[in-house]
Amino acid sequence: MSELETRLLDRGPSAAAAPKTELPSHKWTMLIDLDKCTGCNACVVACHVENNVPIRSEREVIRGHGQHWIRIERYWEGEGDAQRATFLPMLCQQCSNAPCEPVCPVYASVHSERENLNLQVYNRCVGTRFCGNNCPYRARQFNWFAPQFEGPITEMLNPDVTVRSGGVMEKCTFCVQRIRRVEEDALVEGRPLRDGEMVPACAQTCPTSAIVFGDRSDPQSQVAQRLGGQREFQVLEHLGTAPNVYYLKAGGSDGGAG
Amino acid sequence: MTEKISRRDFLRLGAAGAATGVLAGCTSPRRWVVLEPFVRPPEQQVSGVATWYATTCRQCPAGCGVIVRLMNGRAVKLEGNPEHPLNRGKLCARGQAGLQMLYHPDRLSGPLLQSTRGSREFSAIDWNEGINRLFQALEKAGPAVAVFGGATMSDHLFDLFSRLLAAVDAPAPVIYDLYTELGGYRMLAQAMGQVYGRAALPAYRLAEADVVFSFGAEFLGTWTSAVRYGVEYGAFRSQPYGKRGLLVHFEPRQSSTAVTADDYVAIAPGSEGLVAGALLRIIADGNLGLPGRAESARGLAPSLDVDQAARESGIPLEALQRWARRFAEAERAVAIPGGALAGSSNGMLAARAIEALNVVSGSAPAGVNTTPPDLGLARKSLNTFADVQSLIARMRAGEVQVLLIHSTNPAYELPAAAGFLEALAQVPLVVSFGPIVDETAVWSDLILPDRSYLESFGYEVVSPDFGSPVVSSQQPVVTPVFDARATGDVLLTVARGIPAAAAAMPWGDEVDYLNQMVAGLPEAAYPASTPEEKRARFQQHGGWWPAPAAAAPALRPQPFTVTAQRAAFDGNETDYPYFLHVYPSVLLSDGRGASLPLLQGVPDPMTTIAWQSWVELHPATAGRLEIRDGDLLRVTSPHGEIVAAAYVTPGIRPDTVAIPAGQGHQDLGRYARDRGSNVVQLLGAALTDEGGGLRWNGVRVALARTGKRIATASLESKVGVTEGLGYE
Amino acid sequence: MAEQASPESPVWNRPLPDDPELAAQVREIREKHLLQDARPPGEVAEKVLGPMARLGRVFWLAFVVLGGLTATWLVTWAYQAYQGMGVTGLNRTIMWAPYIVNFVYFIGIGHAGTFISAALRVLKFDWRAPISRAAESLTVFALLVAFTMPLIHMGRVWKFYWMLPFPNQRQLWPNPRSPIFWDMTAIFTYLTCSMLFMYLGILPDIATAREKSSGWRKRLYTVLALGWRGTDREWKHLDTTLNIFSYGIIPVMFSVHTVVSWDFAMTLQPGWNSTIFGPYFVVGALYSGVGAVIIIMAILRKALHLEYFLRDEHFNAMGKFLLILSFTWVYFYFNDYLLPWYHKEPILTVIFRLFTSGWAAPLWFTMLIANILVPWATLWSRKVRSSIPALVGVALLVQVGMYIERYLIVAVMLGYPELPFNWSVYIPRLPEILITLGVFAFVVLGITVLSRLVPIIPIWEVVEGQLLQGTRRIGRAIFPAKPEAD
């Protein structure tokens, strides 16, 4: 607060002693080391469970309605019999300059400046799917039908996350429900967040620790320290979406050079 | 006998137990935690605040520790237990899907009786009647009892089964399932016994390795200890000073491990041992590597013609030489024998050849090269297919009056030629303990559904344990959702009526048994001053493990010989032009994952197909036979035939086709039923040359178009990933 | 000498010149040009109003069929809204396809109406007189349908009103940065203005109809005529208002389809984010719209026996117009494709190859034949332009071609984002097909019914035009001429 504001608002001495009620800002960043990704799909399943993402039936998958907030894209590189597959975990890149935001007619896709996240407001979405078209990563998932959770499977739904209805767009949120919990706990305890305290479901379960998550505005964080290397790249950088997901290139065949 | 602690005291000790169900039976309940409605929640549960309980995952035999997040008494998320020394807080896809096993809509609630086997007409009976029927049959049968179990049966239950069988002079339980067969668990353990003198499942430590040669070991898929291998691999790639290790993978098919490797070699099927032998030979003859390596190799290398080995395996000679040098010169070089070897005719030979490479490089696997401490706990040992055949022979001969089946599905997992279903006809009472009606339960008379692992007590001695012994604990994390009953309790109830068994199994219930076992464990890494605290901490931390101690001296390898040859395959080349490569699906494993939508509906990493099964074939094969994706093909082997949808991929050799195990169920719930085909129907019941394993990796097949097609449920754009943007 | 009207020889009763050759020329001119062929007052009106009430078998057959298709549209829409958008062939890559294609297409053909009635009016092209109202009615119904299209493709259509700005307790407003919001405002403006413009233009004719009808029609027209008496003052006001609207609606027309094109041009989708989309879409709209008007003209001429009004000269002019628009469209199309082809951006090269030799090639080549080859090969010929069946055939082909053009842009290109893993091919399913057929039927049904309810030819404009026309003699030749306007 500037001096002028302080004077104008005339908060007085008690203001200084008042506890902080604002949450601090972060630059949540995800780092995916492709050298370590094995395509095991643990992140995919963990995300489904954490975020109540419905599993779509065989018929729906055939029609292209498969719904995953994170998916493992498997590409082929090389020619002929020398072709080798590569894995690319693809999820919402939480772009700082998100193309999905300006096109939503009802402000269902908005940006959180404080956390540098792209938020999807489920109850505001009317389902025009403009955001889905404009996402070059096709990270956005639409509920083509209302989700079906049969029988007791509804018991395992995570109460921290809305269950979306049909006709609503959804996507990875960097497990914003976990971010909230962790931030509020830290606020209540009057301390800053520790690096590694906030971890989304995918990063938490990844056996090889290929997915690393943190606040890159904290120079001590793991993500901040691993950024800026030679292997770093972003997907579709040239589009200017300024994603907050960084990838590290997989190494070549001459490993172990030290 | 048992101490009854009040709930209050128990909670005060900081344990993390939860409400569980009441054991009913012929006598009054002896549980010490009582069912409570959630209107009066247990004191540690606050609405909207999560509670975490530790238990063990039982989706595969590895025994990873998990912690379960509970909100309002419902389990909503599984995570790896960060304290657990095996998986260190990580969990694989199959583990994450475990909640759907707990809350599955097809889970049985209460025992069922089937009047006619195979009719699928079940009548519900109550637990008293069910247990009584079992008891009466056991009383009459005497020693003519058999137990057929699977590797995910917890060790404590194995102990209870074993004691019961021993008490009535019946043979020990037969533990065998398709998962461990495809993973080669038993075969590898035997091979380790021959090399190191201790028959145990090996655990290869990769975290500090320089060079890793994987011979068909899909350790990043679902093999032995997928999560821990993942953790090791992650460390392997980020070693100090930027060292990232070199991984070379030899397999006829590009599995996800092959994709992740730095170099992938599409070797001819069944030639793993040949390649290992050739490498030994090259090291020996070329005097390659660090001091002592060549000499060690000379002692072990088989006599073979390296050129011929190169030709037969399909690897250029210069590549073999390059790899041999690399292996020999690396300070820490590890060779991993894979599960595929188990099904080969010469699997044990190949395993020894590959393990010889480890002997040469001095990097023996964990779990085999040291003598483990005696924990006073029973742990199960796996049986071979030959043992299964013996059991089937006994059944056929009428020597089995009561057959108890738990955590295995032989009607689905065994090849028809094994004759299991026919032999069942000679067994008067078949009892299944599965929570969901599977193919074997359909051929049973009595189903006494066990609780899912998230509702069960127990312990599991982790195997392989990567160098430090771990006993993983199980506890129920929720009030049981269905009216199922812990099999351990059923056995103990039944045992009370059989004098010999009652003496051997003097516990009132499973918990009493566990308490006694846990009390006998040595000191753990965490402090526990009283026996009660020890039991409580055992469950709170998720198990028992000792404080890190100085490594025990390694056992010296025993003398053994290495011979290298190509494996044999059923079927001649003309009638059956293609090698059949069977592999466990990363998601569905050997078929047990097919009941869960979270595993069925997630795309397979290599084909991105969900909900279906397929046969992978090379574009040249597809071109020759004019096959497109989705064409239904008749796949015929000398032993059977199935229909499978074609998937054209460059990730398979032109002379091979690959079919994952896991689909083709007729039962196992609504999500598993009537999808795809069961590759086991293509296998015969022949044994491997050594070790009595099932020869599942030794079949050739023929392909024919049926003229029909299905739409492929794949996530990828086939055109996109094969043609792409045209970058060179 | 120019023939002037006089009380003794009113416009409809001008004598022929004595010279037989000149007389032949004048007869020919009167035969060819509607505005030279004046008839007594009342007869013109009767020619329009008469057939309106005579509903023959063909009309009822058309009514039933079109009504049935329209009902199918509504039922399918309800089914789709209830079940979810998953009943369509849309998927996670191609989230927009047939409904947006219809949306763009119908707004497009609506432009022709405005152009013909407003822009040609401003430019004083009097031959447009008999066509303008039919064209406007096409605009109105096309816009109505176009307005429903974004609703049909919404996931939660019952919340559509959140896209409209209205004060609410939560202080939530639509996003003015979203092209969909611009669509809403632009189309709403356009629709309102078009309807008003058309209504104003109809007023005098409804008054005429009021005088000449009885029964329920008279009651209807009395209400709709708003008390029009035909005084000088009223005419003057009407003229001024129509002028204002004409001038005003032209920029609206241009901006509407430009704004619609920005639904695509403002995105990152390869093939969509081209800066030329604004004018390209406007020209394409006019192109398809003029073709649609030709078809409507031909149908109405047959159904309502309007041979007096819609003559060869009108079809000829529209045919020429179509040809000119085809040139313009090709120019913009060429510009749109030349640049990406030249700089070889990989994803655009893929799309281009898809069109030239991939699975989309049949569509693309059909489009080129329909939009370029056939018009260029035929419309230069007067014979073709004068033959109504031939001209209608060409116009129909143009509709097909332009529909395919929008389909290629929306449904095909969307399947090719930059990450090849997600490429996809859209396959239409039954709901989309039924709804598309239904909306086409609705537009035709609307015009059909409207043409029976209100005069579809602007009687007063025709009469006014006839009053103002005359002939001019230069030497031995006589030409149609108009005295200088004020």
Describe this structure in words.
The complex is a heterotrimer of chains A (258), B (728) and C (486). Chain A is built from 8 helices and 10 strands. Chain A is an alpha+beta fold. Chain A has a single domain (24-248), classed as Alpha-Beta Plaits, CATH 3.30.70. In chain A, strand 4 (109-112) and strand 5 form a beta hairpin. Chain B is α/β, with parallel strands linked by helices and 728 residues long. Chain B has 4 domains: 7-103 and 452-484 and 522-544, Phosphorylase Kinase, domain 1, CATH 3.30.200; 112-176 and 383-447, Rossmann fold (3-Layer(aba) Sandwich); 181-361, Dimethylsulfoxide Reductase, domain 2 (3-Layer(aba) Sandwich), CATH 3.40.228; 578-723, Barwin-like endoglucanases (Beta Barrel). Chain B is 29% helix and 16% strand. In chain B, helix 5 packs parallel to helix 18 (487-495) and helix 7 crosses helix 14. Chain B is globular and about 70 Å long. Chain C has 486 residues and is mainly alpha-helical. Chain C is built from 16 helices and 2 strands. The two termini of chain C are 20 Å apart. The model of chain C has no long low-confidence stretch (mean pLDDT 90). Chains A and B meet through helix 3, helix 4, strand 2, strand 3 and helix 7 of A and strand 3, helix 2, helix 3, helix 8 and helix 9 of B.
Features:
heterotrimer, A: 258 residues, alpha+beta, Alpha-Beta Plaits, 8 helices, 22% helix, globular, C: 486 residues, mainly alpha, 68% helix
